[in-house]
Specification:
Layout lengths: L8 H46 L6 H15 L2 H7 L14 H35 L3 E2 L5 E2 L1 H28 L7
Antiparallel strand pairs: 1-2
Helix pairs in contact: 1-2, 1-5, 2-5, 3-5, 4-5
């Protein structure tokens, strides 16, 4: 079965290059997410061994993990998961709706969600920048910087919004002529 390659100016100069760049960013963010999970596991293991084996826990590991590593592990994989189809999807009513409704409404909903996530990522980026410029820290034994958490989430949600926009285009223009399942 041959796969028909879409043509057109929009596909050639918008969708394909943006999809390639976004896919590369998604893989990079997924690698950072994976490293964050690995580092969190190693730090937790070392902390438990030191705590119960030598009665000398790492006093800083919980803050590092909860402030930076867990947000990175969770949020940085969003866009990749969207592309891979790994997000939860409730399509119970999909087959009850007319084909034309699903083919027209779903891409529109994805595009609206993309706009929403661009807005949220913009707000978080502003917060991260303000926190960076003001040198905001969380007070405690270690002065943890506040801006990296907001920056991690802003980058992730912006990439996710681009993937949503690409998915909307794909559903509207590249998959619209396929047979209804």
């Amino acid at each position: 079965m041959s796969k028909e390659i879409p043509s057109g100016i929009t596909y050639q100069y918008f969708y394909r290059p943006l999809d390639r760049v976004t896919t590369g960013v998604e893989y990079a963010l997924l690698a950072v997410s994976s490293l964050a999970i690995l580092l969190a596991m190693i730090l937790t293991t070392v902390d438990v061994l030191l705590r119960y084996g030598f009665n000398s826990p790492l006093g800083w590991s919980f803050d590092l993990i909860s402030l930076y590593l867990l947000p990175a592990a969770y949020y940085l994989a969003f866009a990749y998961a969207m592309r891979a189809g790994a997000h939860l999807s409730v399509d119970f009513f999909k087959h009850l709706l007319p084909k034309v409704v699903v083919l027209k409404i779903y891409p529109l909903l994805l595009a609206c969600a993309s706009i929403f996530f661009v807005f949220v990522s913009w707000l978080l980026a502003e917060e991260a920048l303000r926190s960076f410029l003001d040198n905001e820290v969380l007070f405690g034994p270690i002065a943890w910087l506040k801006w990296p958490t907001a920056a991690i989430i802003a980058i992730s949600l912006f990439t996710f919004s681009i993937r949503l926009l690409l998915s909307a285009y794909q559903k509207a223009f590249l998959e619209g002529n396929r047979s209804w399942k």
